[in-house]
Amino acid sequence: MSERITSLLEDVESTVRRRSPAEPEFLQTVHETLRSLAPALEIHPDYADRGLLDRLCEPERQIIFRVPWEDDAGNVHVNRGMRVEFNSALGPFKGGLRFHPSVNLSIIKFLGFEQVFKNALTALQIGGGKGGSDFRAYGRSDREVMRFCQSFMTELYRHVGEHTDVPAGDIGVGGREIGYLFGQYKRITNRYDSGALTGKAIGWGGSLVRCEATGYGAVFFLEHMLATKGKSMDGMTVVISGSGNVAIYAVEKAQRLGARVIAVSDSSGYVVDESGIDVALLQNVKEVHAARISVYADARPSAHFVAGKNVWGEVPCDLAIPSATQNELGGAAAAKLVANGCIGVAEGANMPSTPEAIEVFAKAGTLFGPAKAANAGGVATSALEMQQNASRERWTFKETEERLQEVMRDIHDTCLQTAAAYDRPGDYLAGANITGFTRVADAMLAHGLV
Q1: Is 130 labeled as catalytic in the residue annotation?
Q2: 42-51: b or e for each residue (b if 16 or more CB lie within 10 Å)?
Q3: Considering the entire predicted model, what is its pTM?
Q4: Rg (CA), the chain
C-alpha cells in the first residue's frame, strides 16, 4: 500500500473513531473493509477521494427511539429501538431487525455497514441498513411480543416503505414478529404495502425459500469454492456453529449434497453426532420447543453434549460454517481447524471470524468465504420477495431456489474475478469488498454530493 493511500485511510479511520469512539464492532468492520479496498484506491483516483470515503462510513440516517410496552402482569417496560439507514445509492435501504439484549448502536452500525456491501454484491438494486432493539422475546407470551412489536412499529413506520426502507428479520425476529410488525404498519398507514417488510408468511406476501435462504446460500457458496479446487461436498465432514435458522438449513442442504454435519452448537455448548445431525430432531428441539442443544443429545443415542465450550477448534472437520454471531471464531481456534485438516470456511453469520482467524486461513491457503458474500442468500431472497410483491406473483419453491442458486453463483464468480483483476487471486474477502465498494461508489459519484 502506498504512503498516499495509507495516509488517506488513516485520516478516514481517525474521523470514524472520533465520531464513534465507543463502537468496537463498527470500528472493526470499517478498518477491515477499508484496508481491503487499497488495490482499487491505488488504481482509480475517483475512488481515492476523502469525501467519498467519509460519506461511505457515515450513515445517511440514524434513528433511535424508546419502545414502551406493558407485560401481561401490567408492568411497564421501556426498551430502546433503532434503525440505521446506511446507504441508499443502489436502492431502498434493506436489512434485518435484530431483537436481542446485546443490541446496541455499534452492533447495528456494523451490521448496516456490512449490509451495504453484501446487498451490492447481489446486483438486485437494494441499499443497506439495519435495525433492532435490546428486547428479548424468549420467555415472553405471544401477547407481550405483539405489544412490543406494535409499539416498535408505531415509531418506525414513518421511515418504512417499499421504495424507502424495507426491514426483514434477523436474530430474535421471525415470522411471528414480522406478522405483528406488518399488522401495525398496515393499521397505521391504511395501506397494504406488502413490499414494505420481507420475511412474511407465505399466505400474505411471503416467499418460498426465504426461511431456508441464508443457510442454503452459504452452502451453495462453499460448494462453488470447492469446485474451483476440483472438489465437492460429497463425503466431507462439516461443523456448523449455531442451531438457529441459518444453521438448521445449512445442515439440511449440506447433507443433501452428500456431506455429513457432525456438530452444531448454542450458547450453552455444542453437540457432536458422528452419524450426522438429524435435521428434523434439531428443528423440533430449537424451533418447536425452543430448548437448549443438550436436549438434542438427550434424544439421540449417537450424540453427546459438551457444556460451556465453543465448538471451534474442538471438533476436527473438512469444512466449517460459522453461523452463530460476530467474532465467535478466533485465531487460536482457526489454527486448530487448519491443523485438523479443515480446507474450507463459509461464514453463515455476520463477521463471525476475527481478523486473526482470517489471517490464519489466508496463510494456510484455506478457502474462505466472507459473510458479505457467503451469507448474502437471505437478503437476496428478500429482494426476490420484493419482486414477487411488486408483480403480485408467487413463485414455486423450485423456481425461487434456482434464482437463489443463480445469485450465489454470480456472487462467487464475481468475487473470484475481481480478486484476480486486482492481483489478489483466490482472495474472496478482497473480491467481495472491492466489488461491493465499486458498485456503491460508482452510484454515489453519479448522484453527486448527497
Answers
A1: yes
A2: eeeeebbbee
A3: 0.95
A4: 21
Q: Which residues 6+ apart lie within 8 Å of 166 measured at CB?
A: 92, 93, 94, 126, 160, 195, 196, 197, 198, 382, 386
Q: How far apart are CA 403 and CA 323, in angstroms?
A: 23
255: number of Cβ within 10 Å:
18
Task: Take residue 89 and report the three cell numbers written for it.
Answer: 445509492
Q: Provide φ and ψ at 91, rounded to 5°.
A: 160, -175
pLDDT digits (tens, 9 = 90+) for 33-60: 999 999 999 999 999 999 999 999 999 9
pLDDT at residue 1 in the model: 84
Burial of residue 329 (number of CB atoms within 10 Å: 0-12, 13-18, 19+): buried
Of 130, 200, 286, 372, which is the active-site residue? 130
Please check whether residue 95 is in contact with residue 131, taking contact to mean a CB–CB distance below 8 angstroms. Answer: yes
Non-local CB neighbours of 85 within 8 Å, separated by 6+ positions: 59, 60, 61, 62, 63, 93, 112, 127, 129, 159, 165
What's the DSSP call for residue 366?
Answer: -
The residue out of 339, 374, 409 marking a domain boundary is 374
Q: Are residues 270 and 327 in the same domain?
A: yes
Q: Is 420 a member of any domain?
A: no
- Residue where a domain terminates, one of 163, 192, 221: 192
Each residue of 349-375: pLDDT tens digit?
Answer: 999 999 999 999 999 999 999 999 999
Q: Say how far residue 207 (Cα) sits from the centre of its chain.
A: 18
- Cβ(107)–Cβ(25) below 8 Å: yes
Residues 219 and 346 in one domain: yes
Of 246, 282, 287, nearest to 262 by C-alpha is 282
Domain limits at 10?
A: 3-57
